[in-house]
Amino acid sequence: MRIYLAKLPFGHLALDEEGRVVTIRLAPRDPKLALALFLSEPKLDLPRDAEVISGEKAYEFVRRFARRIALKHEFVRSDPEYNAFLTEFGILLAKSRMKDFLTRDKFVVRAVSLLDSLRSVVNTLYEHLREWFIIHYPECELRGKELAEAILTHGRRENFPGFKGSSGIELESKDVEVLTRLASLALELEKEMERMKRYVEDLVRELAPNASSLIEPFVLAKLIAKAGSLEKLARA
Prior knowledge:
Strand order of the largest sheet: 3-2-1-4
Number of strands: 4
Structural class: alpha+beta
Shape: elongated
Oligomer: single chain
Radius of gyration: 30 Å
CATH architecture of the largest domain: Orthogonal Bundle
Distance between the termini: 56 Å
Number of helices: 9
CATH class of the largest domain: Mainly Alpha
Helix content: 55-70%
Order of helices and strands: EEEHEHHHHHHHH
């Protein structure tokens, strides 16, 4: 037996393949209370041998019978009453989802702030790495990420491509170990920054799909962070 399980504004429903109600949990008639049930996961007693279909496919099937079921089970008494309920419910649902978006934009603000802090930390690590390494190899012109990658790959100056001698001091094994750990830390933080940036861009596309199609998502994220929230940016 195939059963379609879905939630509608007036309750949780399970229908068979003919659109007949197998089980139903009606929501309260108050749209605010109905919304609370709608936002919860359906929990209905179903036959053990049933093949349960849920998700978008089930919703599209069940919604075709929604009005008839709402009237038959006396959730409403007329079509106009059903329409009025759906209108008020829809407004409440839209406000609820907007509230979620306006709350999640705080993640954008925090993530952008963290990225700024990480960039400062990484730049400081690169500065210390270079100042330390040029004591060993003052002729080296590499900086930042390129220097960190070269240290991880080659270690001592003698292993660097094009090395022709140096006026710097020799490194002991423990010095090389410290420098490679520092280089590895800086590069790992670079990778984390890239992951965080992708997270921010995806979040901005979710929160502001129209705006992020016109403005580069990370630029938009920085604008949101500067304003303090998506709502404040919209009012600016």
